[in-house]
Design goal:
about 300 residues; Rossmann fold; disordered N terminus; alpha/beta; 7-stranded mixed beta sheet; 10 helices; binds zinc ion
Length: about 300
């Protein structure tokens, strides 16, 4: 559906603007951070919306499990996010203001969906959809991004309720932001011209797995990983990010409580090998009001003025 709200290609010297929506502190570093670092370096304004404080997370790095850390995990994770966002280059970090819903049941190795449970009303997963949508609509209208990145509609591989909500709230807010009839108290309508879903591809995992083999190292990926539901056939857009891989690694390491520097998943390969083994980050174009040709190699394809 199209609305008469202001939208379309930026004119004159107006900078291009990118807005990403993530569930917890650390998701912004593990998903698409090299893409954001690249665009920031190229002059794009980047804003991060983090939906929850990540209060329910565990401490996943034994070295960070010091006295007092667990007790003030929300505060610690907020500071970690500030450091990571600065490394990536985000111009602004905004909080949607919800509590982490927690994972109702430890995910098993297959990533099978956990049993549904009732989530607290102040958690992202338990809050009314319309309330969370209005908060994000207000941010979209104030920030006026040209490209918005959320999580995919299909997240069978990892069904954390907050990650599912990033999709549901993100899509609802994208659709409502340009509609003057929707949430009239949330600011002047703005229709983001493009919407993307970020994606972990099987192609990436395979490339990394093979790189371990070539170096004679033990790959952390076992057989069941390859049998998970993958969505590579939906990829429309690949962003070349090898040069920004260091920023991604450093941003991950800023999440000291969440990321073990000895994790073979994150850091088992030398950085330069991992960066070249799969030099892209992958996206699905989920909505566009501008003409663009698929496959794309630029999130802003169709939005750049002449010479841009
Ligand atoms: Zn998360």
């Amino acid at each position: 559906m199209r609305y008469a709200a202001p939208t379309g290609a930026p004119g004159g010297d107006e900078p291009l603007r990118l807005l990403t929506v993530h569930a917890h502190p650390d998701d912004e570093s593990s998903k698409g951070s090299a893409t954001v670092a690249r665009y920031v370096d190229e002059g794009v304004r980047a804003v991060l919306v983090c939906c929850t404080g990540g209060e329910e997370g565990d401490i996943l790095n034994p070295a960070a499990d010091r006295p007092g850390v667990r007790e003030r995990l929300a505060e610690v994770r907020r500071a970690e996010l500030d450091r990571a966002a600065a490394i990536i280059g985000y111009h602004e970090v905004l909080w949607l203001g919800y509590r982490d819903s927690g994972y109702p049941e430890a995910p098993d190795a297959t990533g099978a969906p956990p049993e549904p449970v009732e989530l607290p009303a102040d958690s992202f997963g338990g809050a009314p959809l319309s309330e969370a949508t209005e908060r994000l609509v207000a941010i979209l209208r104030a920030q006026r991004p040209h490209v918005v990145i959320i999580y995919p509609d299909d997240q069978q591989g990892y069904r954390h309720p907050d990650h599912l909500r990033v999709h549901d709230v993100g899509l609802a807010a994208y659709e409502a932001a340009g509609d003057p009839q929707a949430f009239p108290a949330a600011g002047t309508p703005w229709r983001p011209p493009k919407l993307y879903y970020s994606l972990w591809s099987k192609a990436r995992m395979l490339a990394i797995h093979e790189a371990f083999g070539e170096l004679g190292l033990q790959s952390p990926y076992e057989q069941w990983w390859f049998e998970r539901p993958w969505q590579d056939h939906r990829i429309t857009t690949r962003i070349e990010v090898a040069k920004w891989y260091d920023r991604r690694c450093d941003a991950l390491l800023a999440h000291e409580t969440q990321v073990d520097p000895d994790s073979p998943f994150w850091f088992g390969l030398p950085r330069e090998v991992a960066a070249e083994a799969y030099p892209w980050e992958d996206y699905i174009l989920a909505g566009s009001d501008v003409a663009t040709e698929l496959p794309e190699d630029d999130l802003f394809a169709g939005l750049r003025g002449p010479g841009g």
